[in-house]
Design brief:
two-stranded antiparallel ribbon; globular
Length: 190
């Protein structure tokens, strides 16, 4: 089974993530910021990453389009140990494996789970507000990010597109500031 079909059947549909897919339908395009500009053409609803684009827009590392409400459902499922409502999508053990450090022995200054960042140079969404080691998240090249603190059942979602219309600035300072302000507002401690 291909990745896009598997994700839709096993994750997105059960979680009622109706806006989430690798290749957005025409009906969703009006809600999606153009990915980038190539020459005089705005690229709209097509993954920015060249490797993912070469794979037809379906890849494990890039190309997933979503909305804040859908991503919030995924965050709540992760906080719930793989379950949202009465619907189990992942085993609790799978979520634990995804969110604990697997590379400490390889690179001591980097902590990554399976698909999640715990502490690395890409952890800017955590800012000074989300505690290291008990929170995790993910960043996307085009600017979107999510950071989760399971103990407080809270998360920060920031959907953006730093590439539109041109790739000129780093989004890291803004992500950092949002993480700091959110963590402090939630009363999280390091």
């Amino acid at each position: 089974m291909k990745l896009d079909k598997f994700a839709k059947e096993k994750i997105f549909r059960p979680l009622k993530m109706l806006d989430t897919n690798f290749k957005p339908s025409r009906s969703l395009l009006s809600r999606i910021t153009p990915t980038t500009r190539e020459g005089n053409t705005l690229i709209h609803g097509i993954v920015h990453d060249p490797s993912a684009r070469a794979m037809g827009g379906v890849a494990g590392h890039a190309g997933l389009f979503t909305s804040a409400p859908d991503l919030a459902r995924y965050c709540r499922m992760s906080i719930g140990g793989g379950e949202l409502g009465n619907r189990r999508v992942l085993k609790k053990e799978s979520v634990e494996l995804m969110t604990c450090n697997h590379i400490a022995k390889i690179r001591q200054k980097v902590k990554r789970g399976i698909g999640w960042d715990i502490d690395s140079v890409f952890s800017s969404p955590r800012g000074e507000g989300f505690p290291i080691g008990v929170s995790f998240g993910h960043t996307g090249w085009t600017g979107g990010s999510v950071w989760i603190h399971p103990k407080s059942k809270s998360f920060l979602i920031f959907l953006s597109n730093r590439n539109h219309p041109y790739e000129r600035r780093s989004i890291k300072p803004l992500r950092y500031e949002l993480g700091t302000l959110s963590g402090k507002a939630l009363g999280l401690r390091k």
